[in-house]
Amino acid sequence: MNERWELKNMGNIMDYLDWRGDLLLEHSPFNEVDNLILSQLVYVNFDYIVPARWSAMKITVREAAERYFERYSEEEIEQFSYIVRISVPLLRKLAQCPRFAEAKLCKFEKSIDLDQIKQFAAMHIELSDGSTFIAYRGTDNTIVGWKENFNMSINTPVAAQYEAVRYLEDTTEEGTEALRLGGHSKGGNLAVYAAVMCHADIKPRIIEVYNNDGPGFDTKMLKSEAYQQMRERIRTIVPQSSVVGMLLEHEEEYIIVQSHVSLLMQHEAFSWEVLGGSFVRGENLEKKSELLDITLKSWLSQLDKTERKQFVSALFHVFEVGDIRTFEDLGRAKWQKINEMIRALNQSKEYKVVLIKTLKLLLKEGRKVFLSAGKKKSQQQTKDVRMLE
User: End-to-end CA distance of the chain, in Å?
Assistant: First the structure.
């Protein structure tokens, strides 16, 4: 009876703030759910609201919310990208919760550089327990941000990872407070990279690093002494159908959480189930997630660095020709623009060959992995039936 009641009443991070938002950190210490909330908050477009990295000024979450809703109308907010739109209500709710309303926001930095293929944003959140949470933004809706994600499978570090280290060192070198780093999606990867690669003087101040369904790293990075020294402080959290969080490699143990949606939609932080001050644990990754992970790793293993670079160049060349800068542009693209993109691909024989060859390989690997899984399942079922006989 009690178990049924608990399952029925599980919520998400917004419900958590309704349930526990009145509990100050002094009474209920910082936890994994708090981490996800602050990692999601940095998706809000805080330009000209939260003081910039070079400023000594700070504003509370309550003040930031007041400024934000004075600056933007509901109609304007509806025109923002999806990731911003779903994050704005979180800002509104945080401003009403004693747990976070007086937390101080500062050192906001955002940069998008098409030439360097860089999309980066981060800010400090100074908490009432005396610690500072440094939140790194994940991939937004920009095409350049997703191109940078693809480049992670080719080379480490990418431009945003360099920026993550520089930001951490520049904004904490004069302080002494304890630090927590975190981010969602690519932001989680940036948080880990910054913690591992920052100056030795900063590392003892880092309590924990949270990677919320963000990609891992290549084997060289994982085996490095710097990574091994930080490993025990890394908290990797993934949903049961994780895809993004399973990209590349993870050596640290990860926490599996339940989500109320399926497959790729589980990447969205608001779908993760919360009970009390913790996420609801899942026992294992779902089979589909494991098979997709095997497929992608098998596919990438058959492409050398040159082939990966060619694939990324070909794919994003098509977007550039069509002047597609965000995923909203892609969704709004009219047939004329789509035809231009197809025509550009047909005119570049080299890019067309690369895309077709690489995507065929992906489909081939996917078919092989899923057929193999189906065969094993069938064999196991036959074995189970024989045992019953």
Answer: 36
Amino acid at 172: T
d(CA 256, CA 90): 23
Among residues 139, 256, 225, the alpha carbon closest in space to that of 189 is found at 139
What is the Cα–Cα distance from 28 to 50, expressed in whole angstroms?
27
Q: Is the dihedral of CA 209, 210, 214, 218 positive or negative?
A: positive
Q: Which domains does the chain have, with CATH numbers?
A: 2-284 (3.40.50), 302-372 (no CATH)
**Strand 118-126 and strand 132-136: pairing?**
antiparallel
Helices 13-20 and 82-94: angle between axes, nearest 10 degrees:
0
**Residues in a beta bridge with 208:** 180
Q: What is the pLDDT of residues 30-56, one digit of tens each?
A: 999 999 999 999 999 999 999 999 999
Contacts of 107 (CB under 8 A, 6+ apart): 51, 52, 53, 55, 122, 123, 124, 171
Residue 367: φ, ψ to 5°:
-60, -45
Q: At 2, which amino acid appears?
A: N
218 neighbors 249 (Cβ within 8 angstroms): yes
- Helices and strands, number each (H, E), in the chain: 16, 10
Higher pLDDT, 323 or 384: 323
